[in-house]
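Entry: Ribonuclease T2-like
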Amino acid sequence: MAPLSSLLLSLVLSVPCFAACNADNCLRALRAPSRLEEAQSFCAAFTTAAVSAASAIPSFAVAGCTGNVASRVSSACTCIASSTPVTSTSSPLSTSTSTSISVTIESTSSAPTSSPTGFPSGPKACGNSELSCHNTTVAEDLCCFNAPGGQLLQTQFWDTAPSTGPNNSWTLHGLWPDRCDGTYDANCDASREYSNITQILQSYGKTDLLAYMGKYWKDYQGNDESFWEHEWDKHGTCISTLEPSCYNGYKGQEEVVDYFEKAVSLFAGLDTYTFLEAASIIPSTTATYTFTQIQDALTAAHGFPVTISCRGGALDEVWYHYNVRGNVQTGDFVPTSPDGSKSACPDTGIKYLPKYQTATPTSTTTGSIPTSTAAPYTGRGFLQAYTGGTNKGCLISAGTWYTTGTCAGYTAAASGDGFTLTSSKGPCAMIADSFSCAATNTAGEVFTNLNGSLAYAASSNFYAAAIPSGSVQQKVYTQGDTSGNDVEVSFVWQGI
């Protein structure tokens, strides 16, 4: 086979075949311009009997060729085999109604920065697009017009049982495409349902995005990654303007990045906690509010009514509604009214409960050392980290402090006047003044509940060298300042 650097590949496909081939991530991975020669060589020797697991396909295509591996690789190789190599440069992409499409691909030493057709990489450019749900004719270019999911909802949670995220912020639920009549589609493309959202975002260098999601896009069961996967699989795959065919020089999973970036961008501009606070609506265990009070406060901020949801008479979710002019990636999100009657709250007596409520303890003092009589932690729970009054991550299974990963589940068991803690790594103890959970810790340390916070030796103050960020973890100590551990942190039990 001639080197790919000297080969111009003309892919002449009928429209139906072209659409079918582009529908599968396995094909996209194998047909990547910088890998095409390797893929052609692999496909030339491929037999379905030889492939039974992802490990049997080229490493660069593993992420795309999952599920029924043999079937998907076979289909991808069939599409690649239908491509006809020629030695002359193909004609430019036609703008006529011809049923064939001609694309020129050349070898590069790295991922291409522009598409084979010469357009800039990234989402397809959109001109004077109509506003979704307001078109007067049938929209033909669904890369620049969101349909059938033309109303986009930015949805938020206020979780209190168990609590998630900062105690002065709502958390992100998702970005949903509703049909214009209030119905919706779900799980629209099984071939693009991913189980590695974190890995995809990391591959695009989106560490800041992941850190933000780790703080504000929280799963109440502690499995953020699974929650993100669910939101993308159920809702992201149903957004027409995020289809891979809507990208020039599609690089693989970039629509996933765009989905999460847009959801976070919208959420960051919709500070529900502050909107309500400005109307004197604040979390309380005793105060109640009317539906009109809450709706008026949020309508004033958004410009249009929102959807408000309650559970057990307590406020727990808000949805902001938009129509979009253009695509989701770069288009204009225009606030609008809900696409139907969706709010589910009573007219009066609505509670807005505080997060991270703890039992009010009573304390006695012996000398200068306070002794808490608050109930010991029991059962299973997370240890949420607080510094400067803000929730910043949690403890993970080794006993270290982390801000971007999944919280570890701890088991608390009564012991004397306090309790012991165990994680999946083993019993937890203070080893050389550092909180540690490991199988080598022969006996768990006895901790107490001091005013709701984890305490050791009658103190709920712990220390670290810095607030962890990215993939960095921090050890937690009982000594600060002179030991170089200048960040004070406390840990609050969140039962699960």
